[in-house]
Design a protein that fits this description.
heterodimer; A: 85 residues; mainly beta; Folate-binding fold; four-stranded antiparallel beta sheet; 39% strand; globular; B: 443 residues; alpha+beta; FAD/NAD(P)-binding domain; D-Amino Acid Oxidase, Chain A, domain 2; eight-stranded mixed beta sheet; 33% helix; binds flavin-adenine dinucleotide; binds zinc ion
């Protein structure tokens, strides 16, 4: 069971959250990308074994998006921060 | 549809023609298993049993290196030798054979899928499973149990109808049986008076099977070895060697091994190994758990799937109830999941079968699934020439022989067999996804 410290609500049980996906910056100019580059952005993941920055949604709490830094091997949560708007 | 339908006879022809060369080389197996060999060895205080495979030192160079000694990797090694005569092959495993997801799955072999490319692929795999014990000379304990899915919403019923239609096109049976028939077949089932989700209907796949999971890895390993393939354990691949867009070998904890071609079959570590080759894949790793009860006398035969609760239960040959549910809904390499999944799934099972509420759970474990973006397997070439991937996806025990065979075909010919034409990595760039759901994953 993960305990995720929401930057808005404090430590909460993983049940309250939805894990969305690792943070992948949106390309500044999608039209300038090749099909392969766009496919890589849309579908591919680094999916690392270790530390990762992810977007989570605090569905059953403040209902805000947050960034979670989490270790996929040890299940440690290092820190969280509000998601940029 | 028609073009898809034409694929099957091609494969059968292929299968028949390959059967012969398989038989010819079986003579190299030193030890056969039968009632007589059992008796003989029992009388000889079991001192006469030989090792099932060699434990060779890795050579400097192979034609093909397969990374991952689960069912998929060992099968690929076997089929490379048997179907294509490529015997200078190594299957490299970082731990022990079949100790990954092959050892952790819940053994269900079925073909109820929605999309046209999925059904012949899974049906073909079931056909291979039916013959595999004989072919490998090794008892995989394949047992045809049948599978009943409990339909608990009109959406689930619609999806099942759609599956039934697709499956009928390929000659696979998937029958609606109704609630009364479920009760008749499962005397221990009394629909709860006030269920959380109402049971609307049942759908039945008579050909669904179970098999001894470890035996699949061991049977393939033994036969691959007999065909001259080096099966190398305790050897982790830590790098992929490349030269000008081509793979040239692998770096391992036991030194560099050169290879003309490299195949990857590392379920649950796909992104990790692909990253060594400079590649990113459309996958995310998620933990999947299973747990078993104390053994009891046989009370039901079928594999039971509860669509609304996303979970399933069967009774193993040993008499244990085997229970599983959805993946834990976030990426994890930890090989463990959260207690809440166990709690939610067990509660759902007990709502349907209160008769089991006093039983004790004995064991519990988790494995890791490389969940593909669209829920279908990937068996594909990659942008790195000579480097091939077999990503088993959400339910890859059932696909083991077919995926391994197709992976071997792809490596040998550098072209996909038509049966996996739709399962290449190029489907993402082309927008030709093959979306499949499943009982056991969240997307
Ligand atoms: C709880 C659970 C239940 C399941 N139930 C079912 C089911 O009922 N039906 C079904 O069809 N499927 C099921 N599955 C899925 C199924 O187990 C897998 O899809 C399948 O076993 C994958 O086989 P594989 O040979 O590709 O992988 P594995 O058996 O995991 O083999 C991969 C091997 O690669 C090795 N490896 C990894 N990295 C390296 C490296 N760098 N160097 C060398 N070796 C490496 C690993 O040690 C491992 O042994 C289930 C999975 C789980 C976890
Ligand atoms: Zn919050």
């Amino acid at each position: 069971m993960l305990v995720i410290p929401c930057p808005h609500c404090g430590p909460r049980n993983e049940d309250e959250f939805v894990c969305w996906s690792e943070v992948v910056p949106r390309p500044a100019d999608p039209a300038a990308l090749s099909d392969l580059e766009w496919t890589d952005y849309v579908y591919n993941h680094a999916n690392p074994r270790g530390w990762v920055r992810e977007q989570w949604w605090h569905e059953h709490g403040c209902r805000r998006w947050i960034i979670v830094e989490r270790n996929t091997l040890t299940h440690e949560v290092a820190r969280t921060e509000p998601a940029p708007r | 549809m028609t073009s898809a339908k034409r694929r099957l006879p091609g494969l059968e022809r292929q299968h028949r023609s390959l059967q012969k060369c398989g038989d010819a080389s079986v003579t190299s197996v030193k030890q056969r298993f039968s009632i007589f060999s059992l008796l003989r060895n029992a009388l000889g205080y079991r001192a006469g049993w030989q090792r099932m495979w060699r434990s060779p030192e890795p050579k400097r160079r192979y034609d093909v290196v397969i990374i991952g000694g689960g069912g998929h990797g060992l099968g690929a090694g076997y089929y490379l030798a048997r179907d294509h005569g490529i015997r200078n092959v190594a299957v490299i495993e970082k731990g022990w054979l079949g100790g990954g997801n092959t050892a952790r799955n819940t053994m269900t072999i079925r073909s109820n899928y929605v999309r046209p490319p999925s059904v012949p692929f899974h049906e073909g795999s079931m056909a291979l499973y039916r013959e595999l014990s004989r072919e490998l000379g090794y008892n995989l304990m394949v047992s045809r149990r049948g599978m009943i899915s409990f339909l608990q919403s009109s959406q689930a019923a619609r999806t099942a109808a759609r599956m039934a239609n697709t499956m009928h096109v390929y000659g696979a049976k998937y029958e609606f049986i109704g609630v009364e028939e479920i009760k008749r077949r499962l005397p221990i089932f009394r629909p709860p008076p006030r269920p959380r989700l109402e049971l609307l209907d049942g759908v039945y796949q008579p050909e669904a099977m179970m098999a001894r999971h470890d035996a699949v890895a061991w049977g393939f390993a033994r036969m691959a070895d007999a065909h001259g393939v080096d099966v190398i354990q305790n050897c982790e691949v830590i790098g992929i060697r490349r030269d000008g867009g081509r793979v040239t070998g692998v770096e391992t904890t036991r030194g560099v091994i050169e290879a003309e071609k490299v195949g990857m079959a590392v379920a649950g570590h796909g992104s990790v190994v692909a990253a060594m080759a400079g590649l990113r894949l459309p996958i995310e790793v998620q933990p999947l758990q299973a747990w078993v009860s104390e053994p009891v006398k046989p009370v039901f035969d079928e594999i039971l799937v509860f669509s609304g609760y996303g979970c399933y239960m069967m009774q193993s040959d040993k008499g244990e109830l085997v229970i599983g549910g959805p993946t834990d809904p976030y990426p994890s390499y930890a090989q463990r999941g959260s207690f809440r999944t166990i709690e939610q799934v067990t509660a759902a099972v007990l709502e349907m079968f209160p008769i089991f509420s006093r039983m004790k759970l004995l064991r519990h474990w988790a494995g890791m699934l490389d969940i593909v973006y669209d829920g279908s397997p990937i068996i594909s070439k990659t942008p790195l020439r000579g480097f091939y991937v077999d990503v088993a996806g959400a339910g890859g025990f059932k696909t083991t022989p077919m995926a391994a065979r197709m992976h071997a075909w792809l490596i040998a010919k550098d072209e996909p067999h038509e049966l996996i034409g739709d399962f290449g990595l190029d489907r993402f760039a082309r927008g030709r996804l093959v979306p499949e759901g499943g009982v056991s994953f969240n997307r």
